[in-house]
Write a structure and sequence with these properties.
The protein is mainly alpha-helical. The chain has one domain. It is built from 4 helices and no strands. The radius of gyration is 13 Å and the shape is elongated. The chain binds iron/sulfur cluster.
Amino acid sequence: MQHIELLNEINDVMDTYCKGCFLKSHFRRTYGKNYAHRFCIQNCTVGQELQEIGRVLTNKEQH
Ligand code: SF4
């Protein structure tokens, strides 16, 4: 996948699932930003997918 397609993919996923996510706003309010972020990448499949796309992007930038 091209760089731009990966960025679009991230935007699409975030728009679809993360925008207005109840869990994220709840955890942010209750436990803070770091906890909410950790929850996203450790406990949510959407967050894990975003992280994976981010990893591919980073690898592309380095090569
Ligand atoms: S990664 Fe999951 S928990 Fe985090 S904001 Fe997106 S949908 Fe919500």
